[in-house]
Design brief:
globular; Spore Coat Polysaccharide Biosynthesis Protein SpsA, Chain A; 8-stranded mixed β-sheet; alpha/beta; 396 residues; 51% helix
């Protein structure tokens, strides 16, 4: 029980502190490679997967048509995954401006929608986006810039999200995403990132791997390109996408359950990315950054149960009191979050427990063989850009 207790605590410490620290240290010894300046920009297909996105699609298409990429080399494709609202009608209105609509007759999920779009895409570079993600004017240039390097197969941009309403949930979620951006920056310099963010990532058309509809595409596609083709996944923080985060923890909980359920099922279906004998240090990265993080609730439960067996020792009385106190603060935070009062730090334990309950829910779904292939859109306020200065590509 002593071994289980300290092993569980050690794994949690490794997930939240050890791995990020290791990536930061390793990144300090790597020289960042700057791509060659582009003289001829490649053709790009911007693929927008949509299901019932009538609230945000028109703004997204206006944004896509205004990006600073050579218009003759950019095609825009909207894949409607069996939409039942005005999504198809809105996309059709933009056909005269070069927007192509591909409609799937019935719901098949985002991965199937992307596969259908890629089958008809003409671009050398495929950029995948969501209907509520608005790009900074030079985002595509920043993404495509890196493909001048032969060792790059995928480039991911940064989500510079915002909260339309003030809430502790939004602040904690935005802080978490900022931390993820830092980790991906270090991973990118050390070897390769471990899974992309859905609203803004690009892959070489020649390397695209059609995936089973049950597999989550933005997570697995870049990793399979790395494992099967040896091409790296790079994080580019200047390629910026903007969207609103969900202000209520209940909605964020359901989103995380869906995403983690699909990710765990994808790893179960394609375990090759976890094999260090086949993929070396990259597999260790995937295990450390992804799999172990999703297993944290199991480590926490193991530590708590082991602690109960160790109670005759006064030291473990103190550790149990600390665990129970953290749980009580989380419960108080849940009450404060419901009535939206109190400082954010008092609600942080509640956010931590909720995120890990979502992971536990996803683990149970995976064990039961349950997946969440299709999605329901829950959109907060649109992600309009505030007034700001555009950062030119030459600035880097």
């Amino acid at each position: 029980m002593t071994f289980l207790f300290w092993l569980s605590l050690g794994l949690m410490a490794y997930v939240y502190v050890g791995y990020p620290l290791a990536m930061w240290l390793l990144a300090q010894f790597q020289t960042e490679t700057v791509p060659s300046p582009e003289t001829t920009w490649p053709t790009v297909s911007l693929i927008i997967s949509a299901f019932n996105e009538e609230r945000v699609l028109e703004e997204k298409l206006q944004n896509a048509l205004s990006v600073g990429y050579p218009r003759g080399k950019l095609e825009i494709i909207v894949t409607s995954d069996g939409s039942t609202d005005r999504t198809d009608e809105i996309a059709s209105r933009f056909q005269s401006r070069g927007v192509r609509l591909i409609r799937l007759g019935e719901r098949q999920g985002k991965t199937a929608a992307q596969n259908a779009a890629v089958a008809q895409a003409n671009g050398e570079i495929l950029v995948f986006s969501d209907a509520n993600a608005l790009y900074k004017p030079d985002a595509l240039q920043w993404l495509v810039w890196h493909f001048s390097r032969s060792d790059v197969g995928c480039v991911e941009g940064r989500r510079e999200d915002f909260s339309p309403t003030e809430s502790a949930t939004a602040r904690h979620e935005l802080a978490y995403r900022d931390l993820e951006s830092h980790i991906k920056t270090w991973e990118s310099r050390v070897a390769s990132c471990t899974g992309a963010t859905g609203p803004i990532y690009a892959v070489r058309r020649s390397l695209y791997i059609p995936l089973h509809p049950a597999v989550i595409s933005d997570f697995m596609e870049p990793m399979l390109i790395m494992c099967r083709h040896g091409k790296r996944h790079i994080f580019e923080p200047c390629a910026i996408s903007r969207e609103a985060v969900l202000p209520k923890l209940k909605n964020e909980f359901h989103r995380k359950v869906r995403v983690m359920t699909r990710c765990l099922n994808s790893l179960r279906m394609m375990p090759e990315v976890l094999n260090p004998f086949q993929n070396g240090g990259f597999a260790i990265q995937v295990i450390s950054h992804r799999l172990l993080r999703w297993l944290v609730p199991l480590f926490a439960i193991t530590a708590f149960v082991a602690n109960l067996f160790l109670l005759p020792d006064p030291f473990y009385h103190a550790t149990l009191i600390l665990q129970v106190s953290f749980l009580l603060v989380a419960m108080i935070g849940a009450i404060l979050d419901r009535i939206n009062i109190g400082p954010g730090f008092l609600r942080l334990p509640h956010y931590f427990y909720t995120v890990n309950l979502a992971a536990l829910d996803a683990i149970v779904n995976c064990i039961r063989g349950k997946n969440m292939v299709i999605w329901q859109t829950k959109r907060p306020e649109s992600g309009r850009w505030p007034h700001h200065e555009r950062q030119p590509l030459a600035a880097k």
